[in-house]
Amino acid sequence: MSLTDKAIDRIRDLIQSGELRPGSKLPPEQQLAAELGLSRNLMREAVKALVVARVLEIRRGDGTYVTSLEPEVLLGSIASAVELLRGDTLLELTEVRRLFEPVATGLAATRISASELAVVEAHLDAMRTARDDVELLNQHDAAFHRAVVAATGNATLTTLLEGISGRTVRARVWRGLVDDHAASRTLAEHEAIFHALVDRDAALAQAAALVHISTTERWLREHVDRDGAVPARR
């Protein structure tokens, strides 16, 4: 372990112990370095690394603070990391989505409120209207799923699924461009998910989401090469 890593661990220990709480301001650099037995250079490097990790934030002219440490803050960088993945990781991301999202959809069926259900329905209505516009259809498709997962009330799960969705959304757009029947199937599958949510039927909601995501995954496995590319429409 490098000296910088050890310095990072020392600051993380202060946060985990509760000595530095979410939103609290760190002591001045020189003071904190002395308290932790670190050089000021090591302290600066550790702070920079924790800023990148969204554990700390620097407020110009004010000082360095612990962030809220909420899931959407700490896990929000997953999407950026996912964008850098290469090779057949698109298929792996779709597989991860299949493992998590149906369960989340089933959970949402037991927790979704009337107002949250109305948001889901609004996105479904927008999908119907946009069925001939692949880009717009998939924007509302993604929003539909975000609204469903958000209804679980589980911020960690919501952030994780949102983090992996970017590349899978683009893959679904590709599918819409090369598969003439994708829109009608997609709408039917979303209708099934929505009606299961309306009925508060967790098992049916989970099954409907699994069918939907598995259909997309199966298509991608047949059409996506190892570099994550989909052939253009002929």
Automatic annotation (TrEMBL):
GO terms for molecular function: DNA binding; DNA-binding transcription factor activity. It comes from the Bacteria. PROSITE patterns: HTH_GNTR. SUPFAM superfamilies: GntR ligand-binding domain-like, Winged helix' DNA-binding domain. Residues 1-69 form the HTH gntR-type domain. Keywords: DNA-binding, Pyruvate, Transcription, Transcription regulation. The keyword DNA-binding applies. Pfam families: FCD, GntR. SMART domains: FCD, HTH_GNTR. InterPro entries: GntR_C, TF_FadR/GntR_C, Tscrpt_reg_HTH_GntR, WH-like_DNA-bd_sf, WH_DNA-bd_sf. The keyword Ribosomal protein does not apply. This is GntR family transcriptional repressor for pyruvate dehydrogenase complex. It comes from Saccharothrix saharensis.
